[in-house]
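Our consortium's second objective concerns turning raw sequence data into structural hypotheses that experimental partners can test. To show how far this objective has progressed, the report includes one record in full. It was chosen at random from the queue rather than selected for favorable results. The single chain below, 201 residues long, was entered without modification.
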Amino acid sequence: MVTKEQLAQINNGLDFAAYMNQWQATNALPMTGLDPVARRTRFYSRYNLDRQERVERVWSPSPAFMEAVSAAPGPSTWLFITEDWCVDSAYSLPLIRWASEQRGDVTLRILLRDTHPTIMDRFLTDGKRSIPKFIGIADDGFVQFVWGPQPEALRLVREHLMESGAEGSVVSSSTVDWYADGGWLTVEQELADVFTRAVGT
């Protein structure tokens, strides 16, 4: 369950348009004076905006996904916890945003992980603040479903690379390559399964 106070905080989160406006405004700021970590994060953010826009251009929902979206429980608040530098977010949010717009009884709200730690800590992955996290919440605070931070197939790829001693840069580039090869279709399949399993909750 999510408390009334937490649900109120979630409902005061960003809608998709506000999130995109904030993201684009941040990317438009000069990088002069940023420390190396902040500069790298800004680069990730800029690349992710391009990646998200590509998914929005080329992706078309499958009949199975459309059916699952229609069957998902409601009314609901769909919470998406992220940061704009998160590559997994760039490839999953377009699908979630589209799905939310098909439902008159669903409200999509986006919270930034680093500014909402108490909400984030409600949905940890193996004790970590891994993002993105996608959560369906009923009006009474009941959690209908949770997905994230990434597709299981990609998690296994990353796990294998890390166990084999691959450097972080190799793991990161492999993640991008996996998504660029159409990995968002796997996201679509997982989300369809999540919606279907949540029916009746």
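The partners drew two points from this record. The chain has eight helices and four strands. Residues 4-198 form a domain with the Glutaredoxin fold (CATH 3.40.30.10). Both points have been shared with the crystallography group to help prioritize constructs.
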